[in-house]
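Supplementary notes for students who missed Thursday's class. We covered one full example, reproduced here. Read the sequence, then the structure, then the short commentary at the end.
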Amino acid sequence: MSMGKNILVAHGGGPTAVINCSLQGVVEGARASGQVDRIYAARFGAEGILKGDLIDLTDVPAAAIARLGHTPASAIGSCRRKLTDGDYPTVLETLKKFGIDCFFYNGGNDSMDTCNKVNELAKKEGLEIRVIGIPKTMDNDLDLTDHCPGFGSAARYAALSSAELALDASGLPIHVVVLELMGRNAGWVTAASALAKRLTDCEVLTYLPELPVDEDKMLADIEKGYARGRGLLVAVSEGICGLDGKPLADTGIVDGFGHTVPGGTAQHVTDQIIRKLGLKSRAEKPGLLGRASIPYVSSTDREEAYAVGKFAVESALNGESGYMVAIDAVREPSYSSSLSLVPLDKVANVEKKFPVEWIVEGNQIADAFFDYAMPLMGEAFPEYALLRK
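Structure (token representation):
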């Protein structure tokens, strides 16, 4: 009879370009340990756990697991279901049914809350199940970690896409281009769009949700920027709000976690530019492409995503439980990172916002952000031919 551990990994919330790298780290780490018997994955996250619908990855060929490293989205499926108090006994029943010794939940704020509650309930029930949270969110808003796997790639996508749009806008400066980027209530990804100002000769204005937007001043700044004749890119976070605290574009829809679903911010701003300024304008919204683009993936992000998955397994097999894996980073004299554990109850449902001191004059991004983010975005950025200068 095997004495190895049975482990379960699940994905929660929106996927990223590197979420499967963490899954690869879990599987390959478990195999390398020599301490794991069965490796299970929940089909569509918490939904699969509640249904007892698990995927057995134990005998999946190594070559197939290796392909996770360049596969975007969630290879095992994720969901946006916020578990209720009545769901947790069912979760424990599934864990007991499959003899799970170690449980790993790969997700963001809400997923860490779920992870923490499973850990607490398992202890209360006297179950020896080790629970470790694996950080994942392109929003970069998990606390007590320098940054989150998924952010570096989303930021790289935002920066390069913004630069490409800025070059288009400056090469044919007849309209204002408004780009909407994801990130919900945190402006980390949208801030990366400001790199376009460094890479091109285009005017760039960036609006983050950490500061309320005075729409009249926004339109005045847009008019001034356009008048300079170098083209204008306006980057807006999907979650920006007006002075009244309400989203500029309020869908009135709430998701499974109780969060307001933002949307249409770029189109709203574009409509205002056309109607009130009389300028040509067009809205661009890459949406899901911003979190699922493998061609723009950051090598740093990919490597760290793999590492946090592997470290989670190693930590659980060493007896740790009730923690999330955190990334600790140093940037001088050169970038390097290491991993540690932080208590789940300290990160669950805590949202780390973009520092307001890094927002200059309402629509410019301070150098401090680029010092922070550039190493996370991977390879060097291209140098463009700017012959109009």
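Commentary. The chain is about 35% helix and 20% strand. The two ends are 74 Å apart (CA to CA). If anything here is unclear, bring it to office hours.
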